[in-house]
Design goal:
The chain is α/β, with parallel strands linked by helices and 470 residues long. The protein has two domains: 187 residues, Serine Threonine Protein Phosphatase 5, Tetratricopeptide repeat, CATH 1.25.40; 259 residues, Rossmann fold, CATH 3.40.50. It is 55% helix and 7% strand. It has 20 helices and seven strands. The strands form two sheets. Strands 2-3-1-4-7 form a five-stranded parallel beta sheet, with helices on both faces. A two-stranded antiparallel ribbon has the order 5-6. The longest helix has 22 residues. The chain is globular. The chain starts with 8 loop residues before the first helix and ends in a 5-residue tail after the last helix.
């Protein structure tokens, strides 16, 4: 950063800290005044310039945001994200050609960009009637895992329709629908994916360096062949696949959920930034909120899985491990992939009608201590929620997705599965199906039609898309 001579750095930092507190309290007008005062001391003070851009964007004062963003780019011309943000400002200010020009410059500096860059670039190209280029940009946005992928697919579908490519338009629209179903079940709650995106943006150097490749089997509920697949993979003698360990108590969900509190604003950056060598250095500081570096949080999550799942496998002479589960969502898959970037995922599902008929008579916990799957509708909602997420987001991790019916068919490509997982399997396991529980006797067959009706009301839309009927 360029610092003019005779700058009172303590006064500068004090002004900036005061402005940050005002911004945090929602007093944006007062915060702007402090940022501007800091710039009076040092016109090139990047923290204040960047904050002014952000505040003016929140207030939708695009022209003012442009002014300060231009200064940021002048000071950091090789900063691709600054260029991209300037392009977004031009787009918001309806300066289309300048926006496209700056998006191109940003991408030329760094091809790997956050999803919003390619998303906004596609919007600019679409407004400029460059539909083919817009579609290409939106597809790049999808590769970067946008927060609202269904909206991107909608735009792609509309563009294909305008180009007269009806089949491609329908395919994109169908994907958007599946994503919207998934989003409906998420009920706008903060997601692990959102939290991980915030961590990556705020602390780009804080990432997992784990090189192991655990295998995770995610099944869309019970009675869908997950245990058969689990046994099939262990026939290789190269991997231990743990079966639903404390899943009914939400072990992995409870471990990961606290991460959802992390976003672009919280926890506040100052809570990580104390400078100290010994505890005595902290005695005269306000340390009510005092956090370890974020890298230790990531390492702690990885260590939990290593101690609980990897070590007992190694104690038996098996280096590789995995988990089979019937309750975890696609969001949990994204979390596990964040911890273990080389992990392999298999998403498995079955006809909800056949799965329910196999489950019928059971009463199992979805979540301890008292959230049971008691009714056909509850069974169907669990199946739909999980599978809609798998179909929408399987591509965000290194995965295969297939049905139980496909797994048991003569046409299934077991060599592809072996190659994907890096193991050899014993197919004779498929002929040795084990029964894990005894069904209740004297089930009321006269109620079956009503049960299937209740189930169908919940699952029919997605089930019929997958070719399932009853």
């Amino acid at each position: 950063m360029i610092m003019p001579n005779n700058i009172n750095e303590e006064r500068l930092e004090s002004l900036f800290e005061e402005s940050q507190q005002l911004k945090k309290a929602g007093k944006l007008v007062e915060a702007i005044a402090k940022y501007l005062a800091a710039l009076q001391l040092n016109p090139n003070y990047l923290p204040a310039l960047n904050e002014l851009v952000e505040v003016y964007e929140k207030q939708k004062e695009w022209d003012k945001a442009l002014i300060y963003n231009q200064r940021v780019v002048e000071l950091e011309p090789e900063n691709s994200l600054a260029q991209a943000r300037l392009a977004r400002n031009y787009l918001q200010a309806k300066k289309l050609q300048k926006a496209i020009e700056k998006f191109k410059q940003a991408i030329a500096l760094q091809k790997e960009q956050p999803a919003w860059v390619y998303h906004n670039y596609g919007d600019a190209l679409k407004q400029n009637h460059q539909l083919d280029e817009a579609i290409a940009a939106w597809k790049k946005a999808l590769e970067s895992k946008p927060l609202a992928p269904h909206a991107v697919y909608r735009k792609i579908g509309n563009a294909w329709e305008n180009l007269g490519r009806v089949n491609l338009a329908l395919a994109a629209d169908r994907q958007a629908v599946q994503l919207q179903i998934h989003k409906h079940y998420q009920k706008q709650k903060p997601s692990l994916e959102d939290a991980i995106a915030s961590i990556t943006a705020r602390w780009p150097d804080a990432k997992s360096n784990n090189k192991t490749s655990p295998i995770f089997i995610f099944s869309a509920g019970w009675r869908s062949g997950s245990t058969l697949l689990q046994r099939l993979l262990m026939s290789s003698d190269d991997v231990v696949i743990w079966g639903e360990p404390y899943s009914h108590a939400g072990l992995i969900d409870s471990l990961s959920t606290p991460l959802k509190c992390i976003n672009q604003q919280s926890p506040h950056q100052s809570w990580f930034s104390f400078k100290w060598k010994t505890p005595k250095d902290l005695a005269d500081k306000f340390v009510a909120n005092f956090y370890p570096d974020i890298s230790y949080l990531i390492a702690a999550h990885i260590a939990y899985f290593e101690v609980f799942f990897e070590k007992p496998a190694m104690a038996k002479g098996t280096v590789r491990w995995g988990i089979k589960d019937v309750r975890l969502t696609s969001d949990h898959a994204i979390y596990l992939n964040w911890l273990f970037p080389q992990a392999k995922f298999i998403f498995l599902y079955r006809s909800p009608y056949d799965a329910y008929l196999s489950y019928r008579g059971a009463r199992w916990l979805k979540k301890w201590p008292n959230e049971f799957i008691d009714t056909p509708a509850q069974f169907g909602l669990h199946w739909q929620e999980l599978l809609a997420g798998y179909l929408a987001e399987a591509e965000k991790v290194d995965s295969m997705i297939f049905s139980y019916e496909e797994l048991c068919s003569d046409e299934f490509d077991y060599e592809k599965l072996e190659k994907f997982l890096g193991i050899s399997i014993n197919l004779s396991i498929l002929n040795d199906k084990k029964k894990g529980f005894k069904k209740q006797k004297n089930l009321q067959e006269e109620t079956l039609a009503q049960e299937i009706k209740e189930l169908k009301e919940v699952v029919e839309s997605l089930a019929s898309d997958l070719g399932y009927s009853y």
